Amino acid sequence: MSSGLKKYAKYVRKYLPWLALLLALDGFFAFLLWLADAESFRVMVPTMLLATGIVFAAMTAALSRREEKKQHAFESFLSEPEMQEEQVLCRYLAPLDQKEVHLLGELLRTHEKEMREQAERMNSYQEYVESWAHEVKNPLALLTMVLDNHREELPEALAFRLDYTRSRMQEQIDQMLYYARLRGLKQDYRLEKISLQECILEVLEDYKPLLEEKKIRVSVKLENAGEKPKVAGQSEAEVQPDITNLPGTVLCDRRGLLFILSQAVSNSIKYTKEDPSLIFSLETDSLVWLCIKDNGQGVRACDLPFVFEKGFTGGGAVTKRATGMGLYLAREVAKDMGLCLEARSTWGEGFELRIGFPRV
Description:
Heat Shock Protein 90, six-stranded mixed beta sheet, two-stranded antiparallel sheet, 8 strands, elongated
């Protein structure tokens, strides 16, 4: 049955009570006709029933077309509650219904105006935050240059404090930027094939002074390949982890992935224990999983389901100054990029963050 016939059948069912009323009137007049003239009764009854059927079918067709036009006008009015759409809808309504539609139109137009104003304020806020963050990066770049050029002249403890301060400021700026973007009306992610190797090396380079200070062993452990540890604090040639066996590319937004990786590395540095290590590994099933695992204090089983919740910091002295925004923002960024983000942990044995990429 075609869609037109289905719609017509729907309206026939809707108007069946009127058909029953018409048939009842036909029966009443047929009874009177039978009492008056039995011969005319046999001739007129079929004609009356046929006329009733024709009138019912014609009225049903006319009313169904009018109902469809009214439905279309109502949908257009809801999607764009302008005065022109409102006037078109009122043509198909009774006067009392027209007053209600006028009130609804005023309300919808008021809300639409408020939403446009709110959107403009959100865009202005996002643009301000991004502009402010870029301005703040200038003194950070200057601090980085001073540290790189005069590190040998500074006391070791002071150099570490400056490195730590620079890293924390960069983390907070990145978190603010991504929080503003998540709350904005437009996203600027660009999905492309990018190198996991380059992204991991870039993040490790940013955190290199802190990794060396904490003496964190950075290693890569691939499927069917042995672990190749590189101890922070060794020579310049040795400190870079060997990750040349990683797959060539994954489909992702580069800046978004760098942000997620930086949150994982930052957390591993914060929650270190004795003989700390940071392991990058790959697993594959229906997705390609990049696993970042440390051997820090980990997360309690009761807290693990909430590590991606906004503002969640867990317990302990280390978390007193934590904001609880890092993993929350990482999850939101991963969700926007179509990636999976999972967390695994055993209390006292470390924490593992898993990033699932679609297979390319």
